[in-house]
Amino acid sequence: MAYGKLRRCSAARKALLRDLVTDLILNGKIETTESKAKELKKIADKMVTLAKTNTLASRRQAASFVRFEKNGDNKYAIQVLFEQIGPRFANRNGGYTRVIKTGFRRGDAAGLAVVEFVE
Description:
Elements: H1 10-27, E1 29-33, H2 34-53, H3 56-63, H4 77-88, E2 97-104, E3 111-117
Antiparallel strand pairs: 1-3, 2-3
Helix pairs in contact: 1-2, 1-4, 2-3, 2-4
């Protein structure tokens, strides 16, 4: 996947994006910096596209990126992605997430944004 550097080495960048995507799937909405949010949107949309196809190959492809974590209902992130989020966007052709700018962080004045699923 092609994405911005985010001032990190490739391993740290991949780990950061994996964590953000997993948290977005489990919580439905997260707050982060604008640059991370823009990169997260690209990857989250790809994960939802995989969930819409719902084949064994797409499950394995998504599972190779999404972390093995559970939510409050004791369901794994992959289960939530394929059982709830994928069918929710079955009739939509893209643009599954939105980025809303919320202001600036107090400590370093970094731009903050909320990433959430549409609908």
